[in-house]
Design a protein that fits this description.
The chain has about 180 residues and is an alpha+beta fold. It has 2 domains: about 100 residues, Orthogonal Bundle (Peroxidase, domain 1); about 70 residues, Glutaredoxin. The protein is about 60% helix and about 15% strand. Helix 1 crosses helix 6.
Amino acid sequence: MSADSVAAKRYARALYEAAAQRNAVWDIELQFRELVEALEKDAEIRAFLGSPKFETSLKLSVLRHALEGRMDELLVNTVELLFKRGRLPELAAVYQAYSRIAEEGSGQARAIVYTARPLRDAELAAVAEQFGKLTGKQVRAEQVVDPSLIGGVKVRIGDRLYDGSLSGKLARLEKELIS
């Protein structure tokens, strides 16, 4: 485990604990996700925040002005702290850690379901239900279409990967035949 991931988890844990005291865990999770997605899409903002050409105080002022009133003050303060400590590039890692901590704290799990073709809502719900029984948690499933799977399904829940895809089975068969 890298020092960066340890730091990201610490920032995420602190934000989660403060958010839990205010019953704002899921509001902050949603705002945090939107912020990370917006920053990932906007190269100009990332360039501005990372540029040595601009004073730190100016960048901080612009950042605070952009977030204040639109995001929970806890999240604004966390982002500001990350910026001041030179850890803004780790924002996405902090978000991922926060999201996992929030899910664990509420007995939920997020499953990313990879399939070769789009699933109907009922099929996705059935996958979520089956993995809910397996994990003992309420599973929220998100779908990703990956034609390279050929068929079947792969499901990632946290650090675990359940591979029931045809491409995965072929890879295991190939490995077995070569050995």
